[in-house]
């Protein structure tokens, strides 16, 4: 996984057909997804339950790009090795999930995975300033985590501040929640490069009508890239 700051679209499979993950992953990748975003929720850190390591392991053979696993769980550390074994490429933990994010990021990197740190909308950029040398990705939540299909919360000032703090480090800024062609330009202009989109990618499409996914991915990408040229 080489670092670059081009716009990457990471569909969240939280909006996919849960009875058909293999084909859904293949469809979004064939239709232009750069990464595949997997939302892990524990019913404790967030009020919803989704996948665990066995599901991530089952997704692995279908993902040909980058499997980007977002842990909305607490605690994190006891499960890091299980997600490495399951085949995650990027593993992101929340800075609010425990008192030892520094240790968590070191433990993630020690497995060979890329390490991400996520911030809830209420958490300031400064909460991760001391972690920037240990992280490959900062995920800025633009909804309160737990569910797809929520309204975008404007975090562009936080994204700008983070990009300034990151400087020339090779750190991605990922945006997660309510990303669509109307919100993507705001965050791209502020310095984000990885755009997670669930509803905006999967709406109107299916594995038997996958070109809609392609249209949706292209619409988000074009809106984001449009402000960079
Ligand atoms: O992590 C989350 C929600 O907690 C996200 O990944 C959502 O799944 C994105 O969905 P949309 O807001 O794009 O529908």
Features:
alpha/beta; TIM Barrel; eight-stranded parallel beta sheet; 8 helices; binds 5-O-phosphono-D-xylulose
Description:
It contains eight helices and eight strands, in the order E-H-E-H-E-H-E-H-E-E-H-E-H-E-H-H. By secondary structure, the chain is α/β, with parallel strands linked by helices. It has a single domain, classed as TIM Barrel. The two termini are 25 Å apart. Bound molecules: 5-O-phosphono-D-xylulose. The site of 5-O-phosphono-D-xylulose has 22 residues, from strand 2, strand 8 and helix 7.
Which fold name fills CATH's third level, the topology? TIM Barrel
| Strand adjacency order, main sheet | 1-8-7-6-5-4-3-2
Q: In the CATH hierarchy, what is the superfamily?
A: Aldolase class I
The ordered H/E elements are: EHEHEHEHEEHEHEHH
Major sheet: 8 strands, parallel
Output the radius of gyration. 16 Å
Total number of beta strands? 8
- The best one-word shape is globular
Residue share in helices?
Answer: 25-40%
User: Which CATH class is shown?
Assistant: Alpha Beta
Distance between the termini: 25 Å
Report mean pLDDT, rounded to a whole number: 98
Bound molecules: 5-O-phosphono-D-xylulose
Counting structural domains, the number is 1
Going by helix content, strand content and strand pairing, the class is alpha/beta
What is this structure's SSE topology?
Blueprint: E1 8-11, H1 21-30, E2 36-41, H2 53-59, E3 67-72, H3 80-86, E4 90-94, H4 101-110, E5 114-119, E6 137-141, H5 156-166, E7 172-176, H6 184-190, E8 194-197, H7 199-202, H8 211-226
Helix pairs in contact: 2-3, 6-8
The chain binds 5-O-phosphono-D-xylulose.
